[in-house]
Amino acid sequence: MRVYDIAVVGAGPAGIMSCIRAAQFNRPEGSGLASHSQSQKNVILLERNNCIGKKILLSGKGRCNITNIVALDEFIAKFGRQGEFLRCAFSKFFNQDLIDFFKAKGLQLKIERQGRVFPTTDRAASVIEVLNKYLLESRAGLLYNTRVTGIEREGGLFKLFSEDGRLLNTKQIILATGGRSFSFTGSAGDGFAIAGKLGHSIAPLMPGLVPLKTKETWVRELKGLGLKNIRLTFKAKNKKIVSNVGELLFTHFGVSGPLVLDLSSSVLHLLAPRGGLIENKEVILEIDLKPGLGPKQLEERLLREFGIAGKKSVKNVLKELLPQKFAVVFVNLLGIDYNKRANQVTKEERRSLLNMLKSLRLHITGSLPLEEAMVTCGGVSTKEINPRTMESKIVQGLYFAGEIIDGSAPSGGYNLQQAFSTGYLAGEQAARAKNA
Ligand SMILES: Cc1cc2nc3c(=O)[nH]c(=O)nc-3n(C[C@H](O)[C@H](O)[C@H](O)COP(=O)(O)OP(=O)(O)OC[C@H]3O[C@@H](n4cnc5c(N)ncnc54)[C@H](O)[C@@H]3O)c2cc1C
Asked: What would the DSSP string read from start to end of 12-73?
């Protein structure tokens, strides 16, 4: 049976980059990607689908937000407790390196709000085209429609098994099988089971960047309505957990939208089962619908609006402050007859209106399942991976790259950069290894 130097499992951004870098690494200086040398590694990339990067095609709503231009420390901070683990990988291959990597193959990029980088084509498919070009030039082997089901270590080699039985032998292996969300793209969590069998601890898997469910059912009436420039504050036991300004989208089960997705990872652990018990903390979402106005200023504005309105209905006055659809639901929640005339609204009613505009409360009961989350939180424990090489501290010659590793960031291009950076480092280090 053929013995490879390096086998990479999974052709997502992490695996693709690992493969390109591993195949490229030992070439003589200046030889470029297209030429070969005696020392070039014998590398193979295995993918269960019939093409590379299915998840990349979905990313950034089909536009692929490949990275972010924020500075290194800010980038690292986005990954929270796991951020420092990534410092070496980011220092080796960071956002500008990734931008240059794509530009070198003619893909022009643009920077959008909050430093997000996209291809100017606005098509994730252009990213895939470039990656395919690099893979072709790398001359690494590519085996599609091959699902790796097991890995065993024997006599200094790794034996890889697929659904059809024994597949191949390899000296080094890079596991880049992704997380467990959007499993129809191929990442169904196989890598966690494989790593677990090889002796690795897997930090509990939880949804990250995921819509949230609410106890309140009135949200259904607002399904599809988006609110911009509002402040969301999550609280548990009256203590603030996290807060920020951005966009929210009402859904038939609760809330979604960019800001909800980003903040979701900060609150989900409070609702999740721990050691067989549900922590059962009540998580409250407070929505400040007018974050630009302090309570005093908002009161003056309300007095003005109601003063001018006279015989107009409350509902019509509120349309000046809220989207029409929302105004009706809002008045109902306040328990005010929405046909009541503005000049008949009592001081008490105006006060509760003010309070609700500044702090509309929703009870969070959970989230959509991991399958529907944009990223998987948890994964192979970073304590068991060498951050300088991405090699396992438990099994020599085993490397990890991408979302399979514990830790994730909010949206903004951070997660793809993590995949490309850890892939680059793992590929290079696997190629450097003495026995490869
Ligand atoms: C809808 C959506 C939009 C997103 N948008 C963005 C964005 O714009 N910017 C951003 O930074 N992040 C985004 N993300 C997150 C980002 O896509 C992931 O973090 C990233 O793809 C992880 O890369 P990966 O290579 O580790 O894993 P994946 O991309 O999941 O790739 C893993 C690969 O391994 C293969 N595989 C799995 N098991 C096996 C096996 N047993 N044998 C062989 N092959 C196997 C899979 O088929 C897959 O091709 C988005 C995610 C989703 C779901």
From this structure: SHHHHHHHHHHHHHTSPTT-TTT---TT---EEEE-SSSSS-HHHHHHHHHT---EE-S-HH
Gap from CA of 303 to ligand 1 centroid (Å): 52
- CB-side neighbour CA atoms (13 Å) of 18: 37
The pTM is what?
A: 0.91
Residue 425 CA, ligand 1 centroid: distance in Å: 18
Q: Ligand 1, residues 20, 57, 59: which to mutate, most atoms within 8 A of Cβ?
A: 59
Q: What is the pLDDT along the chain (436 residues), one digit of tens a residue?
A: 889 999 999 999 999 999 999 999 866 554 444 344 445 679 999 999 999 999 999 999 999 999 999 999 999 999 999 999 999 999 999 999 999 999 999 999 999 999 999 999 999 999 999 999 999 999 999 999 999 999 999 988 999 999 888 889 999 999 999 999 999 999 999 999 999 999 999 999 999 999 999 999 999 999 999 999 999 999 998 899 999 999 999 999 999 999 999 999 888 878 765 444 445 568 999 999 999 999 999 999 888 888 887 788 888 888 888 998 899 899 899 998 878 888 888 889 889 999 999 999 999 999 999 999 999 999 999 999 999 999 999 999 999 999 999 999 999 999 999 999 999 999 999 999 876 6
The pair of three-digit structure tokens given for residue 146, joined into one six-digit string: 């091959």
| Any atom of ligand 1 within 6 Å of the Cβ of 410 | no
88 in ligand 1 pocket by Cβ < 6 Å?
Answer: no
Q: Which of 20, 55, 209, 417 to mutate to test the pocket of ligand 1 (most atoms within 8 A of CB)?
A: 55
Q: What domains lie within the chain, and their CATH numbers?
A: 3-207+375-432 (3.50.50.60), 211-367 (1.10.8.50)
